[in-house]
Amino acid sequence: MQEALVRPLAFDLPRAAQGVAVALCIALGLYFGLAEFGDWYLSDLNVYLGAAERVAAGGSPYLIPSSDIHDVFRYAPWFAYAFIPFTWLPLDVTRVVWSALMVVASLWAVYPVARQGPAGLALGVLCGGMLIGVAGSGNVQPLLVAVLVHGINRRSGPLWIALAASLKAVPLVFAAYYLARREWGRLAASLVMTVLLVAPMLLFERPPTTFDPGESLSVWSTSPVAWAIVAGLTGILALVACLSRSRFSGAYLAAAAMLALPRLFVYDVSFALAGSVGEQTPNRDADHFDEQSAPA
């Protein structure tokens, strides 16, 4: 009888800890998302438009008119050419269209993850808030992450990984999912297409600032040698996890992507979204991906 009276008063510590963690992630996500609405400056959009104007005029997208490292265009040239149509629109229209696209991409990126129980909801809201926050700067990160989340498990996955890698390099680590599935052709396709997209950079003159990552949260800002060690060890652990088909391989790959960035910012945590979907069964979608290729 006494045990029956005490049982309702028992404290479930693991469940309480999970609840606190979920609440904290949601609170942080809301903070990151709402903080930018008062300062929607779209500085990165201006960088993309400047690069597009330079290539449209027959110049190099990397030769910026100023020495400010924040104005540097670091992506593959195709992205500058893709932005040329935006230069034909009034600037205010471009700002509205690009802002709307980035906000929608942020929501699209988190939707599959947020449906995966309390932990998925917490990760989705946290990363969604970060993505909406970086959308305020006009950075392409929301679209890049959405492409990875929805593209990795498609037949066309190597193309989406290559497109993302041609912009920020580190998304190439997610091609290791194909290594885990022993899909050698898809792994090779990811590598080859990335090289083909990035190689045209060699055709353009690039000033030294193109290679300067500047100050950030990356270990590079402290020591390039330490960064190389940390990035290398994390990459090796991720490869081992993939080869052993560990259930945590997605988390290892996301960590490897983040720690390999010479320019690391808070919003790069959003790569965890791509890490959380790679182990799911491939979609039977418009690309007609064969579900039997998924890992056992």
Number of continuous helical runs: 13
> How many E-type strands?
0
Low-confidence stretches are 288-296
The oligomerization state is single chain
- Please tell me how large the radius of gyration is: 21 Å
Given the helix and strand composition, which structural class is it?
mainly alpha
* Average of the residue pLDDT scores: 84
Q: End-to-end span in angstroms?
A: 48 Å
Main β sheet profile: none
How is the topology of this model organized?
Elements: H1 2-6, H2 13-35, H3 43-56, H4 77-82, H5 91-114, H6 117-135, H7 141-151, H8 157-168, H9 176-180, H10 184-198, H11 224-243, H12 249-259, H13 271-277
Helix pairs in contact: 2-6, 5-6, 5-7, 7-8, 7-13, 8-10, 11-12, 12-13
Short description, anyone?
This protein has a domain at 25-205. The protein contains 13 helices and no strands. The protein is mostly helical and 296 residues long.
Can you give a write-up of this model?
With 296 residues, the chain is mainly alpha-helical. The protein has a domain of 181 residues. It is 58% helix and 0% strand. It is built from 13 helices and no strands. α11 runs antiparallel to α12. The longest helix is centred in the middle third of the chain and has 24 residues. The protein is globular and about 55 Å long. It starts with a helix and ends in a 19-residue tail after the last helix.
